[in-house]
Amino acid sequence: MTETDPENQNPSLLRRIRARLVPDAHPADDRGRMRMVLDSLILHLHPPKVPDRTLKWTYTWGLGGLSAVLMLILGATGAILLNNYTPSAPQAYLDILELRSNVWFGELVRNLHHWSANLLVIIAVLHLLRVFLTGSYRAPRELNWLIGVGMLLLVLAANFTGYLLPWDQLAYWAITVGTGILSYIPLVGEWLSRLVLGGPEVGASTLLNFYSLHISFIPLLIFGLMSFHFWRVRKDGGLTLPRRIDETEEPRVERLTTIPHLVRKELVFALVWIAAILIFAMLVPAPLEDIANPGLSPNPAKAPWYFLGLQELLLHFHPLVAGIILPGLAMLGIFLLPFIDINTASVGIYFRSRRGRSLSLLALGLAILLTPLWVLLDEFILDWSAWLPSWPSLITNGLIPMTVVLLPLILIDDWAQKHLRADLEERILFLVIFLFTAFGILTAIGIFFRGPGMNLYWPWLMPEVVH
Amino acid sequence: MTENTAPETNVSRRDFLKVAWAFFGGLAALEVGGIFLAYLQPRLAEGEFGAHLDIGLVDDYPPGTVTHISNGRFYLVRLPDGGFLAVYHRCTHLGCTVPWDPAIQKFVCPCHNSQFDDNGMVENPPAPRPLDLFPVTIENGAVRVDTGTILQRQTFDTAQVVYP
Ligand code: HEM
Ligand code: FES
Questions:
Q1: Is ligand 2 within 6 A of the CB of residue B127?
Q2: Is A327 within a domain?
Q3: I need a labelling partner for B90 at 20 to 30 A (CA). Which of A33, A294, A327, B155 fits?
Q4: CA A222 to ligand 1 centroid distance, Å
Q5: What was the ipTM of the complex prediction?
Q6: Is the whole model's pTM more than 0.80, yes or no?
Q7: Which residues of A touch B89 (CB under 8 A)?
């Protein structure tokens, strides 16, 4: 535009500011309206149009979006909590007490942070599961799968470092037991454990280390990876298209404008969840026990709940197997999945195929049946170290039980391949669902069935924690 | 120049620069990583756990007793034969604090039920090795324990015991 006559063309200062901040809500002409939509920041994130099929919320269940909402809640509540928190013992604990009783809405903000963090672990895992079950990590989306796994690990790290901050008995001993696993890593374990703890045991340096990781390094990385993740979704051509199981030809794609069709849904979804979390946080307080006492371990001392599956494994296997080999293999498997499971023909179909559905049900059923059975067997009957007293415990407590567990799995896989004619993607589906369910059940056993001395109890007969 | 005077080699200038970039870039990344790790290193304060502790005279601890020195994180064990051991109270399984049970004369871990005798030897797993020790020195009848040095061991051996 060229210079205009200052006399009658220049609107008042206020109007000029307003014109910049709130563009004309309704331009008169079509072109103007189109421009307004295209200039919107939302379309920096989303494409202008999306296939109507991907809008069906029973495909994604909104899990990725919910993870992002939770991260925003965590960022916002975390930033306020910072103003009321000193990362030194015993002040940290006193600050939380003060927060609960003397700070306006302090308890609510803390509850929001606590429950959102725990929910995020669950939701992020479910999101990963959805992507797996629909085969959505296959080419060209492998990289985004890897970014996702990276974010999940960071979310666990954020939760774990945050767990220590209230400096109560729960925090102190969960972190003690949780980091205790580190020292079993061959060669570097002791060094690594000392490094993370900043000393031989959980103490002042640990609190400071965890605090700084928790509020700077980890959230920065997560938010950075989140932008990368969203950008990749667009670059990879949007979400995978959901397809019905009997749909053989390429589905016909109807495209709808992102504004309002997608954005409205996202907003409603986010608001409903925020409301639900808010209500939950008002009703259920985050736990806080007595101040940390390094001289007194509670009985039982459990790691944070998302590590209890791992802790359960530690009760059955030599630490090298339970803490390093098995989790290492699992992580490796998760990273390699999109490069092994590569049949793009079934992308977008839940459980791959009809046979895939039956196999999934079978895997679920078998895991629910076999896992508790194995736990009981190993707890009460199998005792290799007593039967073979002169053998090293890495064999009696590690390799033999590992074989006992892996052998049936290999046999079942072989059977599925020979008798059910399962192909590679269906076998992978079976194995992953089996292992995933088994790990879930181990976690549940660790949370609900382990009592004093880490013995098994019925949840309704569980004795009180002894302090 | 019309003639190539450089010696015959398989490495082009471009490849050489690439390798050099990767090498120095990697080196810089390692340095930054190293600094990051160094910042996590233990920072022990004077007089805290981790320092030398003077805990009194030999005669304060009669033979056959186990005394918890909680600010030093250890048990001072005076064996029946008069020898001293400073046993770190941290369970070698996953790090819980083991209480001394005088009724059965054992350390019993509340977390996963490891048990140790008064020497710190494992009597019941899952603990993989005996309780760790701190060095004890006795000068002019005064007992001093260095809680900054943790001695791991695979078994009990009389050389670990300090006699006045
Ligand atoms: C990345 C996602 C995050 C997760 C998963 C997470 C998780 C947690 C957890 C589990 C706790 C323990 C809360 C409790 O038991 O009460 C916690 C505490 C805390 N977090 Fe976060 N957090 C995240 C992000 C942040 C951010 C971005 C900040 C600030 C910039 C922050 C600041 C704090 C503070 C100050 C506490 C101590 C207050 C308390 O213990 O109640 N967090 N966090
Ligand atoms: S920490 Fe002592 S038995 Fe596990």
A1: yes
A2: no
A3: A327
A4: 13
A5: 0.79
A6: yes
A7: 295
